[in-house]
Amino acid sequence: MWKERVKEYNWYLFDADGTLFDTTKLICSCFMNTAKVTEGRELETSSVLSNIGMVLRDQMEVHFGKLTDEEFVRRRKIHMDYQMSVYKNYLRPFDGVADGLKTLLSAGKHCAVVTSRMMPSIGIFLEHTGLAGYFDHLITPELTKKHKPHPEPVFKALELMNARPEETLFVGDATFDIECGYSAGVDTAFVGWSCNPLSSLVVKPTWIINYMSELLVGVQ
Q1: CA-closest candidate to residue 180, choices 153, 198, 141, 145
Q2: Which end of the chain is less packed: N or C, by CB atoms within 10 Å?
Q3: Domain encompassing residue 120
Q4: Are residue 189 and residue 104 in the same domain, yes or no?
Q5: How far apart are CA 30 and CA 59, in angstroms?
Q6: CA-to-CA distance for 104 and 120, rounded, in angstroms?
């Protein structure tokens, strides 16, 4: 039985894509373009959706098979050049996210992003959506040897923030986020405003939330 009321934490970790801002159509468009340019074929949308949340190389190898470093770099450039040329047509923050982050900071809470998106695109996306000023740290794949669903990204966030696991919540929209937080020993919240169904989760989250305001119950 699910706990009904989200408790108050001191440290809040947020996934980016699908949690802070909506990039689902953007990511699908990018993979469709990469497949068309590099292999002259189309990808199944369902396959793209089910792998959002992994680092880019892992996603690419799901769709295109094992890649050499040289081939990955070539495809990544095609992929990211296209993404940077079209992201403004797709990217938007989810409703209530900015106000929720503002409330958390006003209450003295500390927030960080834990994402599989690399710099500098995460920085560009946060700036574009007006969310850049709310986070103490950005934990990107460049900072860890292992990536979600491995717990190392959350461990890195806890280290950088000098945070206590029992007072930390990781908020995300994909099974990779929930597995990462669970394995790191922090509570997790699965958001209901993205495209991923609850049935996609491998482990049970501590909380399920459908609105950002649910994180703010009891926060003063």
Answers
A1: 153
A2: N
A3: 11-22+92-216
A4: yes
A5: 12
A6: 25
**Burial environment of residue 197 by CB neighbours within 10 A (0 to 12, 13 to 18, 19 or more):** exposed
Residue 212 covered by a domain:
yes
pLDDT tens sequence across 157-192: 999 999 999 999 999 999 999 999 999 999 999 999
Looking at the structure of the chain, the number of domains it has is 2
**Rounded CA separation 72/56 (Å):** 9
Query: Rounded to whole angstroms, how far apart are CA atoms 169 and 184?
Result: 11
Residue 1 has a pLDDT of 40
Rounded Cα distance, 6 and 76, in Å: 39
Contact by Cβ (8 Å): 161, 11? yes
Tell me the pTM: 0.94
CATH number at residue 175: 3.40.50.1000
Tokens of 139: 């934990």
